[in-house]
Amino acid sequence: MPLQTPESFADVLIIGAGPAGLMCANALAAAGGIEVRIIDQRPSKISVGHADGLHPRTIEVLQSYGLAERMLREGSRMYMCSFYNPSHTGGIEFTTRVPDVTVPTARFPFKIALHQGAIEDAFLDSMAQHNLKVDRPVKPLAIELSQDQEQLHSLSSYPIKVTLARLDAATDAEKLEVVHAKYVVGADGAHSWVRKAFGVTMDGDQTNYVWGVVDMVPDTDFPDIRHRAAIHSTNGSLMIIPRESEKVRLYVQLSGEDFVDPGTGRVSKSKSSPEKILEVARKTLHPFHISPLSDIEWWTIYMIGQRVASKFSVEDRVFIAGDACHTHSPKAGQGMNASMNDTHNLAWKITQVLRGWANPSILRTYESERRKYAQDLIDFDKRYAALFSGKARTSADQDGISHDEFFKAYKTASGFTSGMGIHYGPSMIVNAKHQCCAENLVVGQRMIPQIFVRAADARPMEIHDLLPADTLFKILIFLGSANEESRLAEINALANELSSPTSFLQRYSADGQPSASVFDLITIVAGNKENFNYLSIPQVFRPHWSKVLLDDTDVTGKVGGDGYKMLGISSESVTFVIVRPDGYIGMVAPVAALQDVHEYFASFLLPCHGSSSL
Amino acid sequence: MPLQTPESFADVLIIGAGPAGLMCANALAAAGGIEVRIIDQRPSKISVGHADGLHPRTIEVLQSYGLAERMLREGSRMYMCSFYNPSHTGGIEFTTRVPDVTVPTARFPFKIALHQGAIEDAFLDSMAQHNLKVDRPVKPLAIELSQDQEQLHSLSSYPIKVTLARLDAATDAEKLEVVHAKYVVGADGAHSWVRKAFGVTMDGDQTNYVWGVVDMVPDTDFPDIRHRAAIHSTNGSLMIIPRESEKVRLYVQLSGEDFVDPGTGRVSKSKSSPEKILEVARKTLHPFHISPLSDIEWWTIYMIGQRVASKFSVEDRVFIAGDACHTHSPKAGQGMNASMNDTHNLAWKITQVLRGWANPSILRTYESERRKYAQDLIDFDKRYAALFSGKARTSADQDGISHDEFFKAYKTASGFTSGMGIHYGPSMIVNAKHQCCAENLVVGQRMIPQIFVRAADARPMEIHDLLPADTLFKILIFLGSANEESRLAEINALANELSSPTSFLQRYSADGQPSASVFDLITIVAGNKENFNYLSIPQVFRPHWSKVLLDDTDVTGKVGGDGYKMLGISSESVTFVIVRPDGYIGMVAPVAALQDVHEYFASFLLPCHGSSSL
User: Fold this and answer.
1) pLDDT beneath 50, residues of chain A
2) The FAD-binding domain covers which part of the protein (chains A, B) (predicted)?
3) CB count, 10 Å around CB of B335?
4) Which positions in chain B have a beta carbon within 8 angstroms of at least one beta carbon in chain A?
5) Within a domain: B610
6) At what angle do helices A19-31 and A116-129 cross, to 10 degrees?
7) Could you tell me if B358 and B459 lie in one domain?
8) Rounded to whole angstroms, how far apart are CA atoms A20 and B462?
9) Quick one: pLDDT at residue B237?
10) Which residues of B are catalytic?
11) Are residues A451 and A531 in the same domain?
C-alpha cells in the first residue's frame, strides 16, 4: 500500500534560493505573520564566483532591510572607473579615470564587488533570525493554478497546488510532497521551470559576443588593478573588477569562433579553460603583465543574451522574478541587482494583500513596474554591450569605436548602472499629479537621501534610515517653519483634520489612533536645533519624540541642512511626501490637495482590515 | 595532610574586572602571545547603573580596538547641552542650548550614554574571541614583590607572588592558589586592595556636596529630556543624562544634612530612597513635571571626593589604574573614561616590554603621563563641581553663581570633558623638538582625524581607522607632492636611506624588510586620484597597495581633502609623523632631521628582539 503524499499549506511558496528568491523570502519573513516556504534544488548554496556586483541603489535597498553593513564591511568598493585604449606604440595606455557613480544623490557613491555567496549569506542569516531556512535539495515536479474565479479572488483560498520532490542524498530516492499555496514566486533562474510550466515565452535575441570570466589573485604591474577598468585594445576588450581581499575578476572578450560549438551555436565550456582566457587577457593588457598568484578561484564563459519574459505574472497568483524573466550582459553589473529589486518590489505588495491592508489589484503593478524596467534595461544593455564588445578605434582602424563614443555612453548610462534611474510610471500606487510641489523629488523614483537633525536630541539622521523596508507607507509631513503665528493656525487646522475619523491616518488604522500599524509618520520642521521645542507642535505630528526632525545642520555645521531646498519643497506651507514601503515616492501633495491624498490611499487600501486572514 | 596549594604563572595578572581592568585585559589578549589572567571578586558582572558616559576621545580609543561600533549602535548620544536657570516668576526656565562637544577635531562630536554593563560586555565578547575570561569570584589575599634587584630587572623572572582565594558558592569554602606574575595591574576600584597592600596613599579631600542618582523611564513635559541638561535652581542643581532606550538618568543635588550620617560623616544609603531623591528633583524642575513611568532601574547617593594616588606604580612591576588611583565627581562624565584611558596607556607598553621590543624604562611613562593627567583632572573637577554644586544666582540672591560664570567654565572645560585635552609631556616617548613642522598637530596629544583617499582604489579612509591599537608604532610619511623632477630626487634619496640596514625601519625589524612586526608605515602623497599612479613611488613607501594615501577629496568632492593644510604640514618636503600605539603623537620631524627619528627610537627600542621570552 503506497504511503499517502503529505500535504501542507503556505501563504507564499518561493521556488529558487538565488538573490531574487532570498530577497523575497527574507522580506516576507521579516514582515512577520506570513507562512513562507522557500525551496531550492541545489543541495547547498554557491560559495564562489557567479554574480558579484552591487550597485548603489541595491546597497540602499539592502540598507533598508538592515543588511548593507556586512556588504560594506566585506566587499571591495569601486569608486572610480579607469579607461585604457590602444596606444600609438602598440598595446594599451591609460586614457582617463573618472567617478564610477555620477548620480549626485547616491547615498553610497560606489559599487561593491563581493561574491554572490557572501550576499546570499547575509539573507540566510537574517532569515534564520525569523526562523526561515531554505528547504533543499527540493525540486518542483508539477504546478497547477485553479481556474475557479471564486478561488482566484478569495484571500482565504490556496489556489495553487505544487508537487515537490525531495532528494534523499543517502538513498537517491525522491520523497513527494504537495504544497497548497496562496502565492508562488518563481525565482528559479534563466532556465526557469515555473516560467516554462506556464508557457511564458522569452522575447529577444542572443548576441554573438563571447566573454570569459576568471576570478584570481593577480601579480601585475597594471596601475589600475584596484579600480574598475574598461580596456579597449586591438585584441578585444577587457574589464577588471577588483574583488574582496586581494582578488580581481577579469571579463575577457574572446573571439567567438574559438569557443563556440558550431553544431549547437552555443559556447562550449569544454573548448575553453582559464588558461586560454588568461592567454587572451595577457595579449589585451600588453604592455602590462598579469598572471595569477594563486589558483583560479572560479571561471566561466558565456554569450550575451538579451531577453525579457512576455509576462511576469499568471493571474497575479504566480509571479516570476530575477533571471527567470530577464537576461542581459553581466558587465554593466545589472543581473543580480535587477533580480533583487524585482522581489523587493513584489514582497511588500504580497504582504499588504495577505494582511488585508491592500486590494489584491496592487499586485498588477509588479508586472507593470518591473517588466517596463527590464525592457528599458535590455534596450540600454544592447547599446552598451555593442559598444563595449565592438572593435576599438586606432590610428590604423578609423572604423572602430572611439573612446569618446564609449565614454559618452558610459556617462549617460549612469542612471542604469547605478540603479538610481529606476522610475515607475503612473499607476494606482504612483500619482504624479502634484509633482510640482517637490521640485527635486521625482514621483515614481526612490526618495533621495538627506540628513535632518532630530529635534529632541539634535542627532543627525539620514532620512533613508527612517524609511526601512518594514511594509509600512511612510508619511513625511514637511510642516514648514513653525515660527510665525499665521503658520500655527494652518498647522493646528491640519492637525484637527488629520485627527478626524475620516482622515486617511485614522481610516486605515485599527485602533483609531495614528498607529504604527499601517503608516509611519515623520514630521520635518524648518527650524533650528538651538531653540525649537518639539513639544510645541500638535500631538498628531509627534507620535514619538524621535519622529520630529529639523531641517538644520548637526552640531559641527558640516552635516545636513538645506533639506527643503535640496528637495525643492517650500517652507511656507505644508507638503506631504508619501514614500512606499520599498522606498519609492508614491505621491507628493500640497496641504491644499489633502483630499487627493485621501483618494490616493482609498484607491488601493482597504478601510477595514479586521477581515484579513492574518 | 593538607593539599599543596596550586601554583601557576602569568605574564600579567589583572585584579579587578571593571572598565580599567577589562580595557587592559582585552588589549593584552588582542596583542597576542601574552599569558594574561584577570580576576574579580564579584560573582557576576554588573548589569545596571554605575558609570554610563563615554566621552568623544574614549569612543575614538574604543574604535581603535574595533569596539566602538556596538556603543554607537546601542548608546544614546548627547550632541547638545541645555541650560536652565531660575526664572523671574519662580521655578526654572530655558536659557540656552549649545553643542556639548566644542573641540573642532572631535571625530565623534557627541558623548554616549550607555550603562556600564553594556560597555563591559563589549570587552568581554572581544576577550572571549581571544580565549580570555574573567576568573570569578576570586579575591587576592596576599601580594609580595621580590626585593631582589636582579629579579626585578630580569624579563624572564616572575618577581610578584600573589595568593588568591576562589570562593566556592556551594560550600562557601575558599580554595587557595598562588600566581607568580611578571606584572600585576591593580584595577580594583576606589577601595583598591592592591593600593592598600603597598601602602600607597590617596592625596586630596572629600567635598561636602551630596548627590543622588536615579535611572528611570520618565513621564515629563520637560522639553530637553533627550538632551544633556544642566539645571540650576534655587532648590539646588540637577543634571539630566538621556540614556539608551527611553531611559534617563537624573543627578540630583541633595542637601547634605538630610542624607549624611552625622556619626561617620559619610552619606548613608539607609537615610535615602529613590522616592526622596525624586521628591527633590520634582521641586528643582518646577514648573515642569516629572515622574517615573516604570520602576526605578538603579539609584545611589554619593559625596564627591577628589583624590589622586601618590604613586601609580611600585618598581614598574605593580601598577594601579582607574578608580584605584583617582576619584572625582561623576557629572563631568570622567570616571570611567579616565579609568579606561589609564590602561589603554599602559597595555601597549607592557606588551612591547614583554616582547623584548622596548626597554622596560618606558613603563615609567605610565605614571608620569597618567598621574599628571589625573591631577589636572582633579583640579578641573574641583572648580567645575564647586560651580555646579554652588547656589544659583537669582534676582533675589546676587551672591549665587551666575549662568555666565558656569557657562564660561563649561566651555573652557571642553578639552577635559571631551577627553581631547589629554596632553602627555616630553619623555623618552614624546619628543616635541620639531613641533613646528606640523603646526596643527600637537606632539603628546592624540593624532587628529583626517580623511585621505587611498591611491589604489580612491576609497576615502579616515586616518584614525589606519591607526588601530595593535601595539605597533605608525610611521606616517608625508611625502609631499611627487610631481616635479626635483622632488623625485629627494624622494628616491630618502627611499635609499630608509632601506639601508642602519635605518630605524630596518634596525628594529626581524627580517630585514620594512616588516609589519614593529612598525606600520603609511605614505601620504599630495596628489590627486584622477591621475596619480601609486606604483610610481619607491617600493619602501608602499609595503602594500593599501598603504599609499592621497590628500584629495573623494569622488563626491565633499569628503576629505586639504589634509596637509589641516595638519599644518608642507607639501614641498617630506615630514614624518610618528604615532604611538595608543594613538598619541610621539614625534614629528622634517626629513632633514631623520637622524633625530633614529635617535628617538634608539632611546627606547631594543635593536635585537630575538632575545625576547615571547
Assistant:
1) 1, 512-514, 516, 609-614
2) 10-380
3) 24
4) 76-80, 96-101, 104, 109-110, 221, 223, 225-227, 242, 456-459, 529-531, 533-535, 545, 554-556
5) no
6) 20
7) no
8) 35
9) 93
10) 52, 243, 251, 330
11) yes
Each residue of B351-400: pLDDT tens digit?
999 999 999 999 999 999 999 999 988 888 888 777 877 777 777 777 77
Q: Burial, A468: exposed, middle or buried (Cβ in 10 Å; 0-12, 13-18, 19+)?
A: middle
**Residues B109, A78: C-beta atoms closer than 8 Å:** no
Cβ contacts below 8 Å, chain A against chain B, sum to: 83
Identify whether residues A373 and A477 lie together within a single domain.
no
How far is Cα B438 from Cα B578, in angstroms, rounded to an integer? Answer: 11
**Nearest by Cα to B464 from B29, B62, B110, B73:** B62
**Rounded CA Rg of chain B:** 26
Tell me: do B377 and B439 sit in the same domain: no
Q: What is the pTM of this model?
A: 0.93
Do the Cβ atoms of B510 and B555 come closer than 8 Å? Answer: no
Query: Closest chain A residue to B226 measured between Cα atoms?
Result: A457
Determine the pLDDT at residue A377. Answer: 86
CATH number at residue B337: 3.50.50.60
B534:A223 CB<8 A: yes
Q: Average pLDDT by consecutive 10-residue portion of chain B (614 residues)? A: 82 96 98 96 79 89 96 94 93 94 92 89 97 96 96 94 89 90 96 96 85 94 96 93 92 84 79 92 96 90 88 97 85 78 98 94 98 90 79 76 81 80 95 97 97 98 98 97 85 94 82 63 97 94 96 96 97 97 98 96 80 39
Catalytic residue among A11, A40, A52, A470: A52
CB–CB contact A79 B531 (8 Å): no
| Whether residues B373 and B490 fall in one domain | no
Phi, psi of A263 (to 5 degrees): -65, -55
The nearest CA of chain B is from the CA of A73 a distance in Å of 12
Domain of B465? 435-602
**Cα Rg of chain A, angstroms:** 26
Point out the domain boundary residue: B350, B381, B412.
Answer: B381
| Nearest-CB residue to B79 (from A100, A225, A555) | A555
First to last CA, chain A: 38
A569 within a domain of the structure (yes/no)? yes
Write out chain A residues lying below 8 Å of B76, CB-based: 457
Does residue A471 sit in the same domain as residue A580? yes
C-alpha grid cell for residue B395? 534676582
Select from A80, A97, A535 the Cβ nearest to the Cβ of B223.
Answer: A535
Q: Among residues A366, A381, A396, which one ends one of the domains?
A: A381
Identify the pLDDT of residue A302.
85
Looking at the fold, whether A372 and A514 belong to one and the same domain comes out as: no
Domain count, chain A: 2
Residue A58 lies in a domain: yes
ipTM comes to 0.92
| B545 plus B477 within the same structural domain | yes
CATH of the domain at B457: 3.40.30.20
Domain-located, residue A85: no
List C-alpha distances in Å: B454 to A219, A534, B459, B561.
Answer: 20, 42, 5, 12
Residues A555 and B110 sit within 8 Å (Cβ to Cβ): yes
- Is A77's CB within 8 Å of B110's CB? no
pLDDT of residue A485: 80
Q: For A375-391, write each residue's pLDDT tens digit.
A: 988 888 888 777 877 77
Q: Which residues pair with A93 in a beta bridge?
A: A85
**What distances in angstroms separate CA A503 from CA A600, B431, B548, one per listed residue?**
12, 70, 59
